[in-house]
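Action item from last week, closing it out:
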Amino acid sequence: LDDAPPPPPPKMKYLTQPEAIAVDEALFESFSVDSLMELAGLSVAAAVRDAHPLPKGRRVLCACGPGNNGGDGLVAARHLAFFGYAPTVVYPKRSSKPLFEQLVKQMELMRIPTLSFLPDNFESDYDVILDAVFGFSFAGSARAPFDMLLAKLATSKLPIVSVDVPSGWDVERGPPETGNLPVVRPQTLVSLTAPKLCAERFAGRHYLGGRFVPPDIQARFGFEQSAFPGADQILRLDLPAAPERDASGDASDGDASDDDADDAPGGAKEKEYYYF
């Protein structure tokens, strides 16, 4: 039995928009929105810290929308402040829901600056952009004031970290065909719970966050999160497979390349991903 080969890595399912909504609804049956948002925002902050370590990435502009994706950004800003970063939040349309009002109060306690609009000359004041404007429930085109905000983000030369879905992208088809209009194209993506189909059109640094999905819910919707290392809140999905090691600890010459994505039931995709 000791000589048995290790089991193959699980397959990461890429969720359609209806599947992503259904997973969230299943989580809300047993978890409060604020508890999930706290963990999601913590994982986003951890990804920013990993992708843009101090001191170079210290000044983070957190662009937050009015929904749960924006709430994740508000939470991430607070955790980034605790991590030693200097976040600023641009929050053009505040939600009147008590949860979001509390998140704003928490930022005020942390003395995090909050802007209602993004100045034209903002790039010199920041090192990194956190895009938490729209999530997987987004459809159609952005309306004011978010159309102008996304246009500024899309034309910025600063590195962008997007939360779950790059803002303005179709959740399943990826970046929109907008002709000459600019499109947000992040260098880093933080998928929460599981990647959405649009992530197949993304080629940058890719993290999995949202370490809170019980095995029963994963099984119900046909996906499996890999084991997060130790107490980490994030998992890199874009790295090649770690080489297998023999009993002496030496690396073998095994193939570390990803397999091509296969079609999965219900229109979702599955892709190999790896423990590391």
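Closing note: Residues 242-276 have pLDDT under 50 and may be disordered.
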